[in-house]
Amino acid sequence: MTTSTRWTLVVLAVAAALIAAFALELGDTPSGSGGSPAAQVSRTHRDADTPEALAEPRRRADLPPCPAAADNPGPKELRGIVVECAADGAQVDVARALAGRPVVLNLWAYWCGPCAEELPAMADYQRRVGPEVAVVTVHQDENETAGLLRLAELGVRLPTLQDGQRRIAAALGVPNVMPATVILRADGSVAKILPQAFTSADEIAAAVKNAVQ
């Protein structure tokens, strides 16, 4: 083997190693660190979002507890899905937690501008309607800290599920857009999927009325 051939093989081996390393790095990049926000994520939250790291963001957000599990099994599409409650990290059986009364399920992410405009309207609607309807939000990005800080910044205190894998949206067949709202009837059936942004509590009230009547 000539010296020139040996050098060629060495260069090719180094290039292959660099390409492999680069591919691995891309595969480990979380969606919240430069990838497309619309891309599916692989984890519920970041490894950095430990209970200790989330303690202060949770204190600042001051969210109410997530709904308690009801006796009935809830929406069939959501059975078997368990996610984290953003308020305290408790595990939530989603189908049972959303059972027993009409639910307005609002899907959002911390980086979504229209979501930030819509969330205060959702909170206003919940204040108006009282316990007859439950408004529950679902944060659909693995950066749980950023989601909590966004809610604190907006002053929105609604029960919030942390679903970085977007399992809830996938199970309900929600289009891959945000914000999106799913209206569930008291029996757990899906009344309407609304891939749109609302700007006021009046708009939300009208949409719920039209969906469940």
Automatic annotation (TrEMBL):
GO biological process: cytochrome complex assembly
Ranges of residues in domain Thioredoxin: 63-213
Biased composition (Basic and acidic residues): 44-62
Keywords in alphabetical order: Cytochrome c-type biogenesis, Disulfide bond, Redox-active center, Signal-anchor, Transmembrane
Principal location: other
PROSITE patterns named among the record's database cross-references: THIOREDOXIN_1, THIOREDOXIN_2
Superkingdom to which the source organism belongs: Bacteria
InterPro entries: Redoxin, Thioredoxin-like_sf, Thioredoxin_CS, Thioredoxin_domain, Thioredoxin_ResA/DsbE_sf
Matches recorded under Pfam families: Redoxin (PF08534)
Subcellular location per the Swiss-Prot or TrEMBL entry: Cell envelope
Example of a GO cellular component annotation carried by this entry: cell envelope
GO molecular function annotation: oxidoreductase activity
Name of the protein: Thioredoxin domain-containing protein
Protein source organism: Mycolicibacterium rhodesiae
High-level lineage: Bacteria, Bacillati, Actinomycetota, Actinomycetes, Mycobacteriales
